[in-house]
Write a structure and sequence with these properties.
two-stranded antiparallel ribbon; 39% helix; disordered N terminus; six-stranded antiparallel β-sheet; 241 residues; elongated; 21% strand; alpha+beta
Length: 241
Amino acid sequence: MNNMQPSDGGSSSAQRALTILTCFRHGDDALSLAEIALRTGLVKSTILRQLSSLGQANLVIRVDNKYRLGSEIYRLHSIYSASQGLDAVIVPMLQALAEQTLETAAFYIEQEGQRFCQFRANSPQALRLDITPGSYRPLDNASSAQILKLFRHWPDERPPIPAVPLYTAGATNPHTASVSLPILGQGDRLVGALSITGPSSRLTYDAAKRIENPIMDAAIRMSRTLGADLTTFGAFAQSKP
């Protein structure tokens, strides 16, 4: 049960709304009404009234008779991330990677079932893939999407991990390729995916292997700065052949 409980004798509407919001846990996709009631201790009629208000604010959305956190949560998370200096940690490293690899460097998170480009530094070359921060891409088989899916519940669930950095070509667009790594933070939780992207005619598998070391170094530095356990990070990073 969520540890933010209604106070004896009832609680304010705001407290009940917060009780519902904070009952969501890491790894939850969507919760049923019964699950929310079990975690919060609130009666279902009260939960439904609060969910209606939370839905109007886009803090919670209803999907197939279940409830998940809405887009306003992600907007607030982006503001929080910036205020905590996440951009100050990641953006300079992306810029350095773009200059070093001559390809576009981007940082993705999973948001509303898609890849969300939170930060990017475009390649200095004329022929490049321009990625706009704030843009969405499908959670398909591109390397960054696979990283987000593979490490979604890390370290609670540890599925078989392919060799990383992970390279793909033609997954989202037949003319683009990418190589990606997970970025971990406190508790070895996934923060996002670091990705180098470029034209598939230039960013071939062999070309990706040649820039593997600076990408790995950047991922380790980012993860260290964000509080990851580098022993754990190294365990799967060393899975590359």
